Amino acid sequence: xxxxxxxxxxxxxxxxxxxxxxxxxxxxxxxxxxxxxxxxxxxxxxxxxxxxxxxxxxxxxxxxxxxxxxxxxxxxxxxxxxxxxxxxxxxxxxxxxxx
Length: 99
Fold this sequence. Notes:
This protein is mainly alpha-helical. Helix content is 39%, strand content 4%. The protein has a domain at 6-45: Histone, subunit A. Helix 1 (6-15) packs across helix 2. The termini are far apart.
């Protein structure tokens, strides 16, 4: 495999919108070479006869069917709230939002 040059690493950095110093380019080029070598090794092992999987065991749908059931009344839901306002839970304002 051909080693990546610092210029090629700089081009990758520009594509990723990462500004790299010359020292970082010299440091990253050999590391990226190693990564590419490992990816090439994995690609050699991956056989077309092996079906890709996302999980080693087959999965079945674990969701239950939706069923309409009675829910709490507004008053019951809010009775444990520290503060309620206009039939809603009142919570502290966050992120400097204006009311």
